[in-house]
Amino acid sequence: MRILVVGATGTIGRAVVAALSAGNEILSASLRKTSIKVDIADPSSIRLMYRSLGKLDAVVCAAGQAKFAPLAQLSDADFRFCLDNKLMGQVNLVRCGFEHVEDGGSFTLTTGILAQTPMPGSAAISLVNAGLEGFVRAAALEAPRNIRVNAVSPPWVTETLQALKMDVSQGLPAAVVARAYVRSVTGTDTGLTLQPSP
Ligand SMILES: NC(=O)c1ccc[n+]([C@@H]2O[C@H](COP(=O)([O-])OP(=O)(O)OC[C@H]3O[C@@H](n4cnc5c(N)ncnc54)[C@H](OP(=O)(O)O)[C@@H]3O)[C@@H](O)[C@H]2O)c1
Question: Cα 179–54–47 angle (5° rounding)?
């Protein structure tokens, strides 16, 4: 398969690339650090990237930023940023990507545990994550040519908790999280949000 991984240089993206590399052609894309560059917050950047790549069998997005801060401190601009980046960035990867994906191909987006298990400070992140989960359920119904649309909802990733010097006991290693992306790309699921488990 020809698989585009957006966010390929990130903690989760690197593990997804490693997990999917055997037997597949991986096209790694990210904001700055790969030769294929894309800013998912900019629809014209997404369209330009797709036009340069040719046909794909699968698109995985392990990118998408949103701001963690107390609700009272989240500004209009903060909400706009989260909606444009993690939410519409991934929605637009699907909308603009259908015509570039082969029959029976797939899209796999990234939400996160804060959709279903919020915490103080997660209002904007929980909003976009939950929105994405609704989007994949609905988009899967209208996807043409048997194209599948799923999301993966990672829990806290061990490597991220380590980097933040937080308790790693609730974390799952990125390599384990990546298995849910492999299931989405290689399986038959559609319209689902997959929860990685040990
Ligand atoms: N890590 C966790 O514990 C965790 C848990 C639940 C959900 N998630 C979600 O999983 C996703 C990935 O998390 P991560 O921890 O792997 O992130 P990360 O390590 O910070 O990596 C982010 C990746 O996204 C790319 N990127 C950033 N902004 C972009 C943009 N506007 N357009 C295109 N690519 C962009 C980066 O590219 P460059 O390297 O080129 O800058 C990098 O490849 C995020 O949506 C996050 O909310 C993460």
Answer: 90
User: How many residues are present in the chain?
Assistant: 198
Taking the CA of residue 10 as reference, the ligand 1 atom at the shortest distance is 21
Which tens digits make up the pLDDT trace of 86-99? 999 999 999 999 99
Which residue CA neighbors atom 18 of ligand 1 most closely?
10
- 44 contacts 96 by C-beta, under 8 angstroms: no
Looking at residue 170, its pLDDT comes to 87
Ligand 1 center–CA 64 separation, angstroms = 6
Q: Decide whether any atom of ligand 1 lies within 6 Å of the 45 Cβ.
A: no
Q: Is the pLDDT of residue 54 over 90?
A: yes
Name the strand (E) or helix (H) holding 181: helix 174-186
User: How is residue 149 annotated by DSSP?
Assistant: E
- CA atoms within a 13 Å half-sphere pointing along the CA-CB vector of 27: 19
pTM for the whole structure: 0.98
Q: DSSP alpha helices (H): ranges in the chain?
A: 11-20, 43-53, 76-82, 88-95, 123-142, 158-163, 174-186
CA of 12 to the centre of ligand 1 (A): 7
Residue 23 alpha carbon to ligand 1 centre in Å: 25
